[in-house]
Amino acid sequence: MEKSRILVLGALGYIILSDKDDIYEYEKYREKIEPFPQRSTDVTVVEYGQQLGVRTYIVSSPIIYGLGSGFFNRRSMQIEALIRDARQDGYVSQVGDGKGEWDYVHIDDLVALYELLIVHILKGDDISFDAAGYYFSETGYVSWKEISQHIAQAGKELGLLKTDNVKELTLEEASEKLLKRGPDVAELGWGSRSRTRADRSREIG
Fold first, then answer.
1. Could you write out the DSSP letters of every residue in 4-56?
2. How far, CA to CA in Å, does 19 sit from each of 96, 132, 136, 138?
3. What pLDDT, in 10s, does the model give residues 38-71?
4. N or C: which terminal CB in the chain sees fewer CB atoms within 10 Å?
5. Is residue 92 within 8 Å of residue 86, measured between CB atoms?
């Protein structure tokens, strides 16, 4: 029941964090409320870096779109799952009302940010690191409803779907159809909000 209550509150209001805010302290605060693997990793990386005298830089990414050119995972899990499910069932789904907004970044822009960071580091430039070394990578934002609608429209135009209607799913239904890893994962993947501003990243180039 506690999870459901938090989900409802999350739908009513949210904050937009800048990478120039004290993200490290914010993550430590959130970890005390409820541990989350990605936050735990970020905090641990910063703490061990400080203990060992190694400068750390953390790039936090939102939805990544576009086709990657690497050897391994070349597509975004969230969007690919929606497309795969639509091809299988003949219609596109969204979790709840789909009003949750997420930031996005094209894979090429994300790669450019990593390259930029590496250049600054190798040159010894004065850029933020350790607890202040968080770099967001957003270039815009979109709602899950808009994503599902665009997939549906493209699918119908290409003749892959008979309808461009979008069907709403509960968290339980989404967990079975999209990922088969439980309602909590479905909520994080397709029923949540995640808004940031990449102010520090834009300042370095």
1. HHHHHHHHH----EETTS-HHHHHHHHHHHS--HHHHHHHHHHHHHHHHT---
2. 29, 8, 6, 10
3. 999 999 999 999 999 999 999 999 999 988 887 7
4. N
5. yes
Q: What is the pLDDT of residues 105-158, one digit of tens each?
A: 999 999 999 999 999 999 999 999 999 999 999 999 999 999 999 999 999 999
> Which residues have a Cβ under 8 Å from the Cβ of 5 and sit 6 or more positions away?
none
Q: How far apart are CA 143 and CA 192, in angstroms?
A: 10
Beta-bridge mates of residue 167: 93
Distance CA 99, CA 188 (A): 14
Count CB-CB contacts under 10 A for residue 125. 10
Q: What single letter denotes the amino acid at residue 91? A: Y
Rounded CA separation 38/48 (Å): 15
> How far apart are the C-alpha atoms of 193 and 10, rounded to whole Å?
8
DSSP string, 155-167: HHHTTS-S---EE
Which domain does 34 fall in, by range? 2-203
